[in-house]
Design brief:
By secondary structure, the chain is an alpha/beta fold. It is built from 25 helices and 25 strands. Among the domains are: about 60 residues, SH3 type barrels (Roll); about 160 residues, no CATH class; about 200 residues, Tandem AAA-ATPase domain (Rossmann fold); about 100 residues, no CATH class. The strands form 4 sheets. Strands 10-11-9-12-13-8-14-21 form an 8-stranded parallel sheet, sandwiched between helices. Strands 6-22-25-23-24-7 form a 6-stranded mixed sheet, sandwiched between helices. Helix 2 crosses helix 3. The longest helix is centred in the C-terminal third of the chain and has 29 residues.
Amino acid sequence: MQPLPPGVTAGARVVVRGRAARLEGIVEHADCRELHLVNDDGPAARRVLLWPFDRPVAIDSRRRLRVVRFRVWAAPVTRALRCRMDPATPRGDVASVDVIPYQLAPAVAVAAGASRILLADEVGLGKTIQAGWIVSDLCAREHDVRVLLAVPAGLRFQWRDELARRFRVQATIADARWLRGMVADLPSDVSPWAAPGVYLTSVDFLKRPDVAASLAREIWDLLVVDEAHTAAAPTDRHAALTAIARQARRVVSITATPFSGDVAGFESMRGLGAAGQSAEPLLYRRSRADVGDPRARRHRFVPVRLTRAESRLQRLLERYSRDVWQEATGDVEGARLAMTLLRKRALSSAVAVARTLQRRMDLLQGRGSAPRQLQLFDDEDAVDDEVPSAVLAVPGLADAGREQRRLAALIEAATVAGAIDSKQCFLRRLLARTAHESVIVFTEYRDTLLYLSPQLPAALHLHGGLSPGERAAVQARFNESGGLLLATDAAAEGLNLHGRCRLVVNYELPWNPARLEQRVGRVDRIGQHRTVHALTLVARDTAEDLVIANVVRRLTRVVDSLGDQDRLAHFLNEARTARLVIGGTPLNETRAEGSAVALQVVKQPAVGAAAAAAAIQLQARTRRDGREILVSSIRASAAFPPGSLVIVRCVARTPEGHAAAERALALRVAAPHAKPRDAAAVRTTAASVLAALPDVRTLAPEINPWFEAARRAHATAMDCLAAREREIGERPSRHVEVQPGLFDRRALEAAGAMRDAEASARASHERRIVALVRNRELHLDCAPLAVLVAWR
């Protein structure tokens, strides 16, 4: 390979393709070199060119000595002395984001070598921002990174906008339309996910078999899973994410409710990305009190007395579900799931359960439409507030005619009960008393939302049937103008609705206590300056009494495992009181023996010294122009004896030229100087001082401990990355021996292709391990930034 031209080294300024740029790093290959350039027109203007195909020319490396007044000299020198970068300091662009220390902690841990993070801070503490720090830092540290962000479908555009606005990270939304275009443009043997970049997709899109198969073959530098509690085992989402996480060098799971009493669900989140002898994930579970925000929240369970017709409907439905539970044959689990769905919808509204009962009758009689067949490239987004027809179509009673009669009686009872809805009446009285407040009313089902809509014509709607653009428009309008918002749980995750609202009403009691936290968390977020109020309506003498008992049991497990200070634990006393008042159950029956669960994770402190130091370093970061050395002069005094003060920038660089750590030092050189006659004399004196400057380590012994500490931290991070790379590369082979056919060699060709692909993957892992080991070592690069001459 041809040698690089003189002066073309890491850190040098060069001209290539007619533009000036700084050569940030050089990556060696067998037949070429990658030249990673940063253009002079901004940090985001990066290019990667190849030598010897592109011919860079070094700009004169001798930096100009610029003589300025002392005031002009002092300001940038002060900033330079304050600015410091350690190996774990995030490298991302900080122009448009507030630097809050606790939000840097996960990014610092990942930079230090952590491969698995469980980011489980309370709702509203900026987990998206914390993930953004990790993404931007990785993009700044490594070249050609491949990041996959798996988020709920309704949050894709919010994530894209947050990354672009705050961190200047451009993410590609990978959906069905994007996939169709990539498949049409690329050769058949090239994966649409092969190119470097940040891919933003929905969790439900990547679980599709064709998409999951192509994703699982790729190696990802970072996998971020938002609202990870919705992808707990056993689900198709969890299976798809597990296959992808095994091939990811770093895995970050984000959830505000890591443990809501479901031990199996928590264990599945804890194990996401585990491979070989992987260490336990780091858990970040900070509360508002931990980060210095003691603002309170008030929540009440409000009992609602039902009418006689509503009580009759509940009793009939209870008998029907009990009979199906005992008599179901065939698909027993499906029949019981249908009964659970009916009981839950009956607690929401009589109109909702009437529609569901009618749909079940139609399906059992063969009049209902069959579940829609997904097309090959259909975008399968999760819509949780739709009624699953496949579940309702499962027969319950052995006698079909008897079941039809029972359903007809239930439909008639639901129609009568819907004439006067007790919860709706209570809600209208509540809204009349709080007419001056903006309110969000959450319901679990879209049917209930559509039922309430005519009674509240001024309300905005937010549900799973809206497109992402429509959801964003409703969110923006509500945050700007306030008012009344009717929403299903499709809006209960990730959205910011706190602009003008602090009051949340749960129209029915969720069976999972984590949903309470998710709903209230839409308005209880960073930026909310008022006390948040939440009310949960509970129908007396119904199955919601049992729901409260279940909520209490699960919250008890949360308290035993995460502690009394956890946010979910705040619901426990209220739920116990509601169980006593509404259900009449003694409090001593709420705690189950052995309910505590040992969470096998490493819990991190609220902020940590490293994160606090990184915040200070980021706030002091400034853009430095290395093309000139500032020079000034002052009269010597008792505070500043005759001599020179040289400001030196010390950088610990990798063999590829990347800066792993840096700091600025002030070095004093004692020497008599006469009063300079003009600027030229000052420049000449400064040049002679720099020419005679001894080794920095001689004048500043403190640089050695700093450099050794930086080298140890950097080597530890490289070792952790190499260990993770070995874990990924040591996965079992999928190759199996095949019997050759007499006239058909396709099986042999497929087996050979799989064997070649695995060999190529192993070689790629080995090359990366070698590169990581090579980059363990650092060398010290020191260059002067400014000179101050003190004359008699």
